[in-house]
Amino acid sequence: MKKVLLDCDPGIDDALALMYLAGLHRAGEISLSGVTTTAGNVGVKQTALNAAWILEQCGLGEVPVQAGESAPLVVDLVTTPETHGPEGLGYFSPPAPASTDLAAAQEQETWQEMWKAAAAAGAHLIVTGPVTNLARYVDSAGAAGFSSITIMGGAINYRGNTTPTAEWNFWVDPDAARSFFEAPAHSTLCSLEVTERFLVDPQRFESMLEILNRHPLTAVLPEILRFYFEFHEKQGEGYQAQIHDLLTCMIALGTVPYEAMETTVAVEAQSQLLRGTSVADLRGHWNRPANCAVVTGADIEAAHREFSRALKLLASPENAVS
After folding, report:
1. SS3 sequence, 60-118?
2. Furthest-apart CA pair in the chain: how many Å?
3. So where are the chain's domains?
4. Is the CB of residue 180 less than 8 Å from the CB of residue 164?
5. What is the pLDDT of residue 242?
6. What average pLDDT does range 195-223 have in this prediction?
7. What superfamily in CATH does domain 2-319 come from?
8. pLDDT band, residue 319 (cuts 50/70/90)
9. Nearest CA-CA partner of 33 in 60, 13, 56
């Protein structure tokens, strides 16, 4: 069984990624060994509370959640209330999770200790927020042990969604992204030109709710997704939502067909104009070793089918965790 450690910043698409992983965990297909969070879409305390609350609603209140770094490595933190709402989950304000005492958990284990244990167990690391925690960890402990590292971030030789050239996760902490890709580590990178193709529109969302049926999240998902739909509509993308982090989890676990290219990735951190811009040396101009497998395509219809399958697993009483 694959062990998985998720590093995220919930965030609406992170929330759907958590639901997906919860469905697989409840069915015994993976073991979600823990979740850590970064400051990104909202502050790190809120991202940890959001993650813990979602897991509790999915019947996984026992999965440990740890808040990680509270700020980017160098630059000041900028959050995205216009994209994900004031508390990260759209129009919904999550209550404190009943079964998870995050303060007590922080005293028992640090997020770095959780990562070390996961690496020792050969877990698959999936990072769907800024790579702040990842850069800190690799700088101190290296990347050895993890079966794989998969990252959602960047706009590889492609237009950005935060500036003309930069994607949000890399823009919010460009120094962390630069540092990681300069380290002796290999990752799989799911960047905008692939992840933005995975769209949920109102029709697909209604199908999601039908599958979930009476699951506890059915009552709150409309308030969460409506905010995301409205944001994308304001951006000229239509009344729908790009679900970047969910597709990244599927690619990380190999549950959907995808194509990738070995290459060398670098991220700009010094220039204000090009802050967070990611570039892949697809033609070998730098003559440097490959440090990344950049995902160049994925079967989007298969991804929708896979998410529906996971929601069925999540909603099934047969998969209740004892």
Report:
1. CCCCCEEECCCCCCCCCCCCCHHHHCCCCCCCCCCCCCCCCCHHHHHHHCCHHHHHHHH
2. 55
3. 2-319
4. no
5. 98
6. 97
7. Ribonucleoside hydrolase-like (3.90.245.10)
8. low
9. 60
Structure-token pair, residue 88:
């990260």
Q: Is residue 263 predicted with pLDDT exceeding 60? A: yes
What HEC string does the chain produce?
Answer: CEEEEEEECCCHHHHHHHHHHHHHHHCCCEEEEEEEECCCCCCHHHHHHHHHHHHHHCCCCCCCEEECCCCCCCCCCCCCHHHHCCCCCCCCCCCCCCCCCHHHHHHHCCHHHHHHHHHHCCCEEEECCCCHHHHHHHHHHCCCCCCEEEEECCCCCCCCCCCCCECHHHHHCHHHHHHHHHCCCCEEEECHHHHCCCEECHHHHHHHHHHHCCCHHHHCHHHHHHHHHHHHHHCCCCCCEECHHHHHHHHHHCCCCEEEEEECEEECCCCCCCCCEEEECCCCCCCCCCCEEEEEEECHHHHHHHHHHHHHHHHCHHHCCC
Average pLDDT over every residue of 245-274: 97
| pLDDT the model gives residue 322 | 42
Which tens digits make up the pLDDT trace of 82-126? 999 999 999 999 987 765 555 555 556 799 999 999 999 999 999
